[in-house]
Design a protein that fits this description.
globular, D-tyrosyl-trna(Tyr) Deacylase, Chain: A, 8 strands, 4 helices
Length: 157
């Protein structure tokens, strides 16, 4: 599983010209599901994201988590995170999970992160043509990949 986590002053998803969902201060999470992802990947990511210490404390250091600030989450599915443009100019998506598999895993990820974060979790609509707006606070953007893909045991913490 691969995610792009962005610290947000606010973020929203618009579909068909109407705002579908939005958050105030918190995190915008773009989530890509690969064809090899399992429940273990979802669980790891669900624990990791709400506990990332990427919000500033009183001394201006990134030392507080989403849980610490009582922030919100906006989670948007994005299969293009597994795009491969290493050959040619048209990306391939063979590493992305097929839509029916990805939707089921994405839905379970949302439920899992909702339990872990203990806060409001809003989403886009899986497979929809969405416009995502973001006020990136900082800007702070973190790319996370589940440990089995990186080969690093340091990511297991």
């Amino acid at each position: 599983m691969r995610t792009v986590v962005q610290r947000a002053g606010e973020a929203s998803v618009t579909i068909g010209g109407a705002v579908h969902s939005g958050i105030g201060a918190g995190l915008l999470v773009l989530a890509g599901i690969s064809r090899d992802d399992t429940e273990a990947d979802l669980a790891w990511m669900s624990r990791k994201i709400p506990n990332l210490r990427i919000f500033e404390d009183d001394e201006g250091k990134m030392n507080r988590s989403l849980k610490d600030i009582g922030g919100e989450l906006l989670v948007v599915s994005q299969f293009t995170l597994y795009a491969d443009a290493s050959r040619g100019n048209r990306p391939g998506f063979s590493e992305s999970a097929p839509p029916e598999v990805a939707k089921a895993l994405f839905d379970r990820f949302v439920e899992s992160i909702r339990r872990e974060a203990g806060c409001a979790v809003k989403t886009g609509v899986f497979g929809a043509d969405m416009q995502v707006s973001l006020v990136n606070d900082g800007p702070v953007t973190i790319i996370l990949e589940s440990p089995k893909k990186s080969g690093s045991s340091a990511l297991l913490s």
